[in-house]
Structure formats: C-alpha cells, structure tokens
Write a structure and sequence with these properties.
Layout lengths: L1 E2 L10 H12 L10 H18 L6 E6 L2 H10 L5 E4 L4 H9 L4 E4 L9 H7 L6 E5 L11 H11 L2 E5 L15 E5 L10 E6 L24 H34 L5 E3 L10 E6 L4 H7 L3 E2 L15 H5 L4 H5 L1 E5 L6 H21 L1
Parallel strand pairs: 1-11, 3-4, 3-5, 5-6, 6-7
Antiparallel strand pairs: 2-8, 7-8, 9-10, 10-12
Helix pairs in contact: 1-7, 2-7, 3-4, 7-11
C-alpha cells in the first residue's frame, strides 16, 4: 500500500507507539488519583503537556481534549459575541458556529482559496466576539494570512481562534493567538486526543462539566497512554522542523513535474503547504479511479465528509463547479513518504486517468 492520505491521518510514529505501550500494558492508574500510582500517571501527563506546549506559541496554557473537534467546539462555545469565519473552514468550525445561536459572518475566498483582506477588515469590527480561521486548509493546503487576521481581531477587541491541525509543526505559527486547536493523529500521534491552547489572561467558559479534572476546567479522565504518545509525536515534530520542509518541498516538485497535460492544481500554489496536492482533471471518474488503484490510499475530498454524498464545500467555495469538484482528488504526503513510492503513485494515477479518457 502506498499511503498518500496524510491530511486524513498520519502514520503513527514508532517512537510514539513505544511511549504508549507501557501505559496500555502495565500501568492502569487514574492520573487524577492522589495515590503513588496515580501521581506517576499524572507525571506522564504533565511531561506530555510540556512537550505539546513546546510546539505551540509561548505564553499560553494547554488542555488535552478528545481531539481538535472538541477543542474547536470548546473555543467557540466558551466565548460570546458575533463570529467571523471563512467559507473554507472545517465543518467543526462552520457547523458549531451555525449551531451557536450567535450572529455568524462567513467570508468568501477567491479562486486561490485566500480571503480578501479588505473584505475581512470590513467584517472584523468592534463588537465581534470571535474570529476563527484555519492555518492550513485540510482539503487544498492553502495557508491563510493568520498573522494579519489575528491583528485585525485584536484591534477590534475580538478573540482569535486558529485551527492549526494541518499546520502545526509544519509551517511557522504566529504568536498572539487567543486559541489554537490541534490534533495528535495529524502529527504522527494517536487518534482520540488533541489539545486546546489558550493564551495567558484569556478567559474561557467550561464546555464539559462533571469534575473539572483537566487544565482550564475540562472534565473527564485523561488517558496517560494517549498523552504520552501525543507528547512524543509533538517533540518529534519540533526536532524534525528544519529537515521537514526540504523533504516535503522536494516531493511536491516531483509530483507536480509528473502530472501530464489536463491536470489542474486546486488553490494557490504560492501560499500553500506543499504536503497537500489537490488536483483535478475534467471528466475524471474519481470513484472508478479509486477502485482501479486500491493499493494507493488517497482521498476524493475531506475524510470527515466522505460519507455524506456531497461534493467538497471547500472546492465549491473557490468557484469550482459541481462536476469539477467531483473530478478532484487530494494527495497528502510527508515524513514517511519516499520519492520512489510517490513517483510510482503519480504515474499510475495519471495512467489510469488517461485510460478513462481513451475509453470515453
């Protein structure tokens, strides 16, 4: 299997698995218990918290959650006032904002996937409570100008929430964000755990009630195993940062060079994380392509909406027609992807698409 679905989830780092195993096999104490075994489990959790915090801007507190979806829900539901966000945000932001009962302004993006800063500035005015913007889009890899948008929010007296799930540890993150949501399984950690960063001095209402065991008052028993795996994964991302970019950039150049005529890249090629390649070919039958290439893992869109039957709201937001959105695929690659396997995958995808066209 050639795995090219890094935006859906990343392979678990062996080092993260090694950190988790003792707490899955031999240790079972509740980290919120006061006895010696509980204190030992608590120490593992706090060490992991420090490892995750090192991946995030200084000057904030980190609370573990069940994943980024919970973290985003918490940041939105724990604040007040009108919300401003983008049409290309993850459903965990868009659906939660719509369900909040608060006024919501959803800003459009251009064909490149970027928000118009003049439009954003006109919408982010005094009285807005929260501005929520993704750092790196999960479907098309476009990098939004979060530093500038964060300054707009601050000038208007609004809080700024950054969904950094796809960007943390991969691209530089601005300081000064009020909230940052991340997920372990997008940085080679385990599924089932994420974190919410809250800048020092920022207040946030409780989202879940029932004990308040975790930092910032989150209720629920933490898993030391998941925390340990998350912590090691975060530490690996911190250390790998200098070498990660050249590797991913080389893979991007290789992949783009091997695309034949008729393929189009969705979203900006300049303002983009290069581990995400979202491409389309008019008339492509994506379901047939995936069936023909079952030993290559890639996506027809966001894994979160793959069972909905709807085309990608992100691709429609950048102006693609329904047919164009449905003829697009997403290839995601990173730390464990080799040039050899990416070359083979791209060549086979192109050949299979060519066969479809010849048979039409």
């Amino acid at each position: 299997m050639i795995y090219l679905d890094y935006q859906a989830t990343t392979p678990l780092a062996p080092e993260a698995l090694d950190a988790m195993l003792p707490w899955l096999r031999d240790q079972h104490a509740n980290p919120h218990s006061p006895h010696a075994a509980g204190r030992k489990a608590k120490a593992v959790v706090e060490h992991a918290r420090a490892q995750v915090a090192a991946l995030l801007p200084p000057g904030g507190r980190v609370a573990f959650t069940s994943g980024a979806t919970e973290a985003l829900n918490w940041a939105i539901k724990g604040t007040t006032g009108p919300i401003v966000t983008l049409a290309t945000e993850h459903a965990a932001v868009l659906d939660t904002a719509r369900a909040s009962g608060r006024p919501v302004t959803i800003l459009p993006v251009g064909p490149d996937g970027l928000v118009d800063l003049a439009v954003a500035e006109a919408a982010i005015v005094p009285g807005v409570g929260l501005v929520a913007v993704m750092l790196v889009n999960n479907e098309i890899g476009v990098v939004q100008p979060t530093f500038t948008l964060g300054n707009m929010a601050r000038s208007a007296g609004a809080r700024f929430l950054c969904d950094a799930v796809q960007g943390v540890g991969r691209i530089e993150m601005a300081k000064g964000f009020d909230f940052v949501a991340i997920s372990a399984h997008k940085i080679h950690g385990p599924k089932g755990i994420g974190a919410l960063y809250v800048r020092d001095g920022v207040e946030l209402d409780a989202f879940m009630h029932g004990g308040g065991q975790e930092a910032l008052g989150r209720s629920g028993t933490l898993s030391p195993a998941l925390c340990a795996g998350f912590g090691v994964a975060a530490e690996l991302m911190t250390h790998a940062y200098p070498s990660y970019h050249p590797h991913v950039a080389a893979l991007w150049r290789l992949a783009v060079a091997r695309l034949s005529e008729g393929w189009h890249i969705n979203g900006s090629t300049e303002h983009r994380y290069h581990g995400n390649l979202n491409i389309r070919r008019d008339g492509l039958d994506v379901a047939r392509l995936m069936s023909d290439l079952r030993d290559i893992a890639f996506s027809a869109g966001s894994a979160c909406a793959s069972g909905s039957g709807r085309s990608s709201h992100v691709l429609r937001a950048i102006g693609l027609s329904e047919a164009q959105a449905r003829s697009s695929i997403r290839l995601g690659f990173g730390r464990y992807t080799s040039a050899t396997e990416l070359t083979e995958a791209i060549d086979r995808i192109v050949a299979a698409a060519d066969m479809q066209r010849m048979a039409a």
